[in-house]
Amino acid sequence: MTVLLSSRSLARGLFHQNDYDKNNYHPCIITHSGTTLYPTKLEEAPTEESSDDDEYESVERQQQQLQQQQQRTNNNNLHPLIDDCSELDHTRRVAIATSHGFDYDEEQGVQSILDALTPHEKQHMSDENMPLRHYRADKGNLPQAIRKIKATIQWRQDFNVEDIKRCFRDRNNPDLPIEKQKELNHLAEVIAKENETGKIYCRGYDKEGRAVLYLTPGRENSQCEIDNMRHLVYHLERAIACTRHKSGRQKVCIVIGYQGFRIANAPPMSVVKHTLQILQGHYPERMFRAYIADPPMVFRGFWKVIKHFIDPATLDKIAFCTGEEGEALLERDFDTNTTEKQAGGQKELRKFCSREFLFDTPHHCTFDEDCS
Prior knowledge:
The chain is an alpha/beta fold. The longest helix has 24 residues, at 52-75. It has a 5-stranded mixed beta sheet. Strands 1-3 form a two-stranded antiparallel sheet. Strands 2-4 form a two-stranded antiparallel ribbon. The chain has helices at 52-75, 87-99, 106-116, 119-123, 130-137, 142-158, 161-170, 178-194, 225-247, 269-282, 297-306, 312-315, 323-333, 354-360, and strands at residues 2-4, 15-16, 29-31, 38-39, 200-205, 211-215, 252-257, 287-293, 318-321. α3 crosses α5, α7 (161-170) crosses α8 (178-194) and α8 crosses α9 (225-247). The protein starts with a strand and ends in a 12-residue tail after the last helix.
């Protein structure tokens, strides 16, 4: 049970679960999780009349505090984080950093990135490992890593990533202002419309517990670039959450199948560039491998164009799965009794249902997964 009080003065409290004086502290969020929390000393409420905007921001701050506490509670039930990078990955990074004149030290690099961030930027990091992923992605190039993580933190706020993540869960949350509920409902409707054909969704895991994100370009149903990107971001965030919950790992697998693909389905170059910008710029070190399954001949010409926009490190993670060699790779990485046909699946699986996946399945579960 969660209780949220909307007093302006209580909204300014911060939470602390160590020593406290009950006479000077007032509980304003109570979460039934086995732990009692008390906020730190509250500021005095202003005497002047508060505007509607102040009231709105106050409730927003309360909701953000509640979400942060709930996230900490949820994290206590997750698998320990697993470093999803191999020794070979590390060796390559050190070699590349050295060849460019950089000293590669992850602990020192992460601390330097954190020191370069403002308190506001730290508050809006996606998670505590975000600096490490950027440092690794930029192979020890500290100035570049700092510039890119700052850009990503700003992008996440500008693109409303947190709202995209929670739009299905919180669209009718009575603790939120009506205007915020309307915004979340709009986002949910946009993503649901984009997902009607099942062009992107999460289903199952690889053998090491990474969520599998299926992309089927032949099912494209939209020409709106921004809505397409919102749809993509929702599923990237969901695949990351599924992986984190399932195994504690931090990367996802992407399977791109080309059933029904025609050159007419090929997205405009602006969409391709925008997609790559998001994947490479804002989700570094999140893709374990991308499997391009049985691409048709018409795709080959398209690939010759787009591959020049792909970072060499990302190109190394893309596998073309054709013939016996492709089948062997898919069988090595997946249990083909649980994957779809485009990922070497050997069994007929239940047909994807978009409404069930988006509206009825928990955010940390893939489609058709037993979440009990």
